[in-house]
Each structure stands twice: as structure tokens, then as C-alpha cells.
Amino acid sequence: MKSGLKWGIWFYFAAASAYIVYEWYAYAGVYRLAAEWQLENYGSYQVRLILIVTILVLLSPAAVLVSLSGMQDQLRTAGSGAGSSAIFALLGVVALAVAAGAGWYGYTKSTEAVDVESLDLSKGDTPRSTHVTITGIARTEYIVEFGTKSGSTTTLDRYIPLTPPTWRPGQPLVYFMKTNMTAYMPPGGGGMLMLSPRTPAFQMTTQPGVLVRDGLPGAVREHFRKNNLAVASPPIVLDLSPGAEVKPFFITAGVSGVLGFLMLVAAGAATLRQRRLEAS
User: Fold this and answer.
1) 83-96 confidence digits (pLDDT tens)
2) pLDDT digit string (tens) for 142-173?
């Protein structure tokens, strides 16, 4: 009974850790709730603090169960058997294989030549690919600034709705440009236009970017909802960040690589403990 509970707790820890990574990447669950509370009160959120809150909320139930069941000693020795070290080693190899595969795929995608499609919203065009430039009206009066803090560094992204000229308030907003630029320089020359709510709406042609379906952060979508602005389902975000398309693969490679390394270290430690027990 206690053996099953012990492995159940280990499984919960592993599943909860994976889900925390998913919440951070997908901006969902407890991570999203904590981030939106900070955004509402302070205008930005600290990634490290939000991760700590998320870890405490999701891992606390298992910690309480361990304490109430008196299984601390059993969990400390859970990896002392040969079978346990083999399991850790297998999981480590699988995680490293996932890291290598994701990293290689991300690298090959980043070196591929892509054709950039021109999408003119005034003509009612629909995108046929994910790499596009968009020509439309930048609705700067609805611009949303979204800040994240990591240590002493604050990253400020701007989400600007892009619409056809015929768009009217009350109609859903479909396309959004994500950028950290503060101004726009028209391709044909002319005066620089500030990306600010004080700037009247103007026609623009964006730089090449990657279209991300349902890529609007929950906090930004909530801002539009509170201001009675309809957002399409799903909203489509044009991400101008370098490497936006391959970022998920490199994140997966990094997380899986770290987990794989830790699993192999745990397997080695379990093997050493087992040999010491056999020698004594």
C-alpha cells in the first residue's frame, strides 16, 4: 500500500512539474491567474515570482500528503534500488532524445528559406502561410502594452490591432501585431509615427513576421473585454520577434535537456547508494 502511494507521489511530482512548464509556456492555469493579478495591480508581472507561486500551489498537496503519511524516509530511499536507477536512467535517455530531436528540428526550421506572403486586409485576403507581412489600419487607440519582469529586466511588448479600413467599433478584432518597437517608419518615407494611443489610426505595412493562432495573452484579451472590444475566436497575432516560429522547439529542447540531465544524475546517485548498501 505504502509502496504504491510512494510511487504515486513521485508521479504527481513529475506530472505537476511538467504542468508548471506547460502553464508558463501557454500562459494558463494558476500561472495565468497570478500573472493577471499582478498586471491588474502593478501593470506588469515578475516571471520568477509567478513561477514560485505556481510551484507552491501545485506541489503543496503532495508535500502535505508526504508529511501526513510519514513517508519522508521512504521517499528519500525511493531511488536506492537497482530498478529505480534503471527507471531514472531510461527517463533521462528519453528526455535527452526529446531535447535533441526538438533542438535539431528547431535548427532546421530556422535555416529554411521561407516565402513571405503579402496580406492586404482591405482586399479581404486570408493567409495561405504563416510567414506574412500585413497591410492594414493600425488601431493605435486600442494599443495594449504588456510587460514581463525577469530579474531587473523588463520586457515590454505592444499589441496593436490591425483591421481593414471598413472596420467599425463593435466588430471583432481579428489580427494583432506584437512588437517591441516604439515607432513606425513608412516604407516610402515620410514622418515617423509613434506607436502610442495618442497617435491617430494610420495605414501601415508591417515587417515580415509569423502568424500565431490564438496567440493573444489572456491578460491582453481580458483588457479588450473590459473595454467592451470584441475579439475574434481565435485571435491571430503577427509576431515580429526574431525566431518566433522556432522558439517553442528550443524551449522544449532546453527543458527536456535539463530534466534528462537531472534524471541521469539521479540514476547515478541511486546506483552509488545501492553499491554502498551492498558493500555494508
Assistant:
1) 567 777 887 888 88
2) 998 877 666 666 677 889 999 999 999 999 99
Residue 14 grid cell:
513529475
- pTM to 2 decimals? 0.65
How far is 183 from 161, CA to CA, in rounded Å? 15
Q: 238 CB contacts (<8 Å, ≥6 apart)?
A: 132, 134, 162, 175, 176, 177, 178, 206, 209, 210, 211, 212
CA–CA dist 235, 201 (Å, integer)? 20
Burial 79-96 (b: 16+ CB within 10 A, else e): bbeeebbebbbebbeebb
Is residue 256 classed as helix, strand or coil in its secondary structure? helix
Q: For all residues of the chain together, what is the average pLDDT?
A: 80
What grid cell was written down for 249? 522547439
Confidence (pLDDT) at 200: 93
Q: What are phi and psi of 115, to 5 degrees?
A: -95, 125
Grid coordinates given for 200:
491617430
Query: Integer distance in angstroms from the first to the last C-alpha of the chain?
Result: 28
pLDDT at position 70: 57
Q: Is the dihedral of CA 134, 127, 212, 210 positive or negative?
A: negative
Q: Are 91 and 85 in contact (CB under 8 A)?
A: no
Tell which phi-psi region holds residue 239, choosing left (phi > 0), alpha (psi between -120 and 50) or beta.
Answer: beta
Q: What is the mean pLDDT of residues 33-54?
A: 77
